Amino acid sequence: MKVLVAVKEVAEATDGFEIDGVDIDRRHLAYGLNEWDEYAVETGVRVAEQFDDAADDADAAGADTEVVSVTIGPERAEETVRTVLAKGVDRAIRVWDDDIAAAELDVAAKTRLLAAVAAEEEPDLILTGVQASDDEFGATGVSLADELGVEWAAVVNRVEVDDALARARVHRELEGGVEELSEVDLPAVLTVQVGSTDPRAASPIGDGPDAEPIERRGLADLGLDAGAVESPFRRTGASVPDRGVSTTYFDGDTDERAAGVADLLRDEGVVDG
Amino acid sequence: MSADGDVAVLGVADHRRGELRDVSFELVTACRELADAVGGELHLAVVAGDVERFAEMLDVEGVDAVHTVDEGEEFNHDLYAAATAALVEELDPTALVMPNSVNGLDYAPAVANALDLPLVSDAVGLSYDGGLEATREMYGSKVETTVAVDEEPFAVTVRGGEWPPTDAPGEAEIRPFAFDADESAFPSRVLGFEEVGGGDVDIADAEFLVSIGRGIEEEENLDLIYDLVEATGATLSSSRPLVDNGWLDPARQVGQSGKQVTPDVYLAIGISGAVQHVAGMKGSETIIAVNDDPNAPIFDIADYGVVGDLFEVVPALIEQFE
């Protein structure tokens, strides 16, 4: 059985960041693996391990297991991809070229790129994080499922795949402490929620000189052209949000600030003494 | 009110286990504003469950028509995606607006892709002047961006709690929408629900919450917070990572997947203020935040702030009550 995990290298705003035009000034961005995708990777590796274990006892449908990651990102993202390889992914694909670099990568564009990779790989299960922590769209996984004409489930925190690879039982984390239990036919795309598993640390394997090379694909390799990444979206502004709340900051040394908070709590009548 | 002009906006209601969710009425407000800007009618759709009762409740000011899809009992994404797509084809709206709820995330992107509509998700503001411009947050709510969409029709999902609800009675026409679905043939099935995070603490009733986040770093460090709770008589709550780590009971979790709280005072310590957390506590009367990152989004909603290391501030605060 094969699992495809779509992961993203995300940008994080560093302390004291500044806005330049319609985005954060690049000098104030730090890059790393999207937190949600870390859980998607762990989930994928665990599902594959279960099939490996099952294959030892019986002739299960998914005797040969493989976990493949796909990421859309520039060369810089290979560092993040290496992290994923060190967390149990067997093979990695990175999609990028000049046309992709020049595009505003919206949900539809990412959907087309990932769908082309999925069509090549023919996975039984596709996993990705619920959302990326930088652009917070939360839509690519479900959009990809529709594009591929397969099933899906969003905001999943538990997955059980049946031995015959016919369906998956999932828990979807709804609002307010309620989970939905659902069953989806396979293949399917699941978007994985944080906190769902306990992600393993990166092992040094996969980092060494014998490491598997990261496979690269451009639009032409995927049978696409620049039209696939055209977008009707235009970023028109960026600012630090002003929610109309003016915050009163306590000044002074630590004791003075603590005294300020203590006086406030007394004034609010929520503490005595 | 007659509903036979151009449909500017089709909004889809959100309900679960027999109750319309609050976001449905907030979505009406967002949709009506957008429909006025586009110039046309606002239609709503309600799919599955007791649709007639839901439609009567959704008949609020500014809604021109409510379309009911009387199929299924509960949310199922295959049903929602198919019914919504069929309604869009029938009504041809300029904008399709869905909630950015967990269930919204489970069908909106599929509908948008199937109909080839550009999708702006998790909008916190919408304006229209010949084209859509949506406001969204990025980078863990640290930055607000505006994005223009040069294509129509388009799809949007709106964040809960960003628009006031509309609840004044309306004069909408309620129209059953003939949509045949064979649920037994759907490739997905909802089997049931499970309550998590019961527990015996009721943080929702507390008037003073001391809430602790990722900034605490290690489980052992929680002793410091227990001391503060004891010194102040507060109730302890937390953000998600502490519950995920198994350090605190799920009953103490504030936020989208945890509980909604509205205490007199919410003292957030080492909590950055991710949108999922803020969704559960922004109704607090007074919010005080302690965080070492001056850019932490929690300060955007805090009435009072201390920028500083919690491992210095909290011991000093405990001392104030000894």
UniProtKB/TrEMBL annotation, chain B:
**Which molecular function term from Gene Ontology is one that the record holds?**
flavin adenine dinucleotide binding
Q: Where do the Electron transfer flavoprotein alpha/beta-subunit N-terminal domain residues begin and end?
A: 9-190
Q: Which GO terms describe its biological process?
A: fatty acid beta-oxidation using acyl-CoA dehydrogenase
Tell me the superkingdom of the source: Archaea
Q: What Pfam families has UniProt attached to this entry? A: ETF (PF01012), ETF_alpha (PF00766)
Name the InterPro entries on file: DHS-like_NAD/FAD-binding_dom (IPR029035), ETF_a/b_N (IPR014730), ETF_a/FixB (IPR001308), ETF_alpha_N (IPR033947), ETF_asu_C (IPR014731), Rossmann-like_a/b/a_fold (IPR014729)
**Which family would the database say this protein is a member of?**
Belongs to the ETF alpha-subunit/FixB family.
**Name of the protein described by the UniProt record:** Electron transfer flavoprotein subunit alpha
Give the organism the record lists.
Candidatus Halobonum tyrrellensis G22
Lineage of source species: Archaea, Methanobacteriati, Methanobacteriota, Stenosarchaea group, Halobacteria
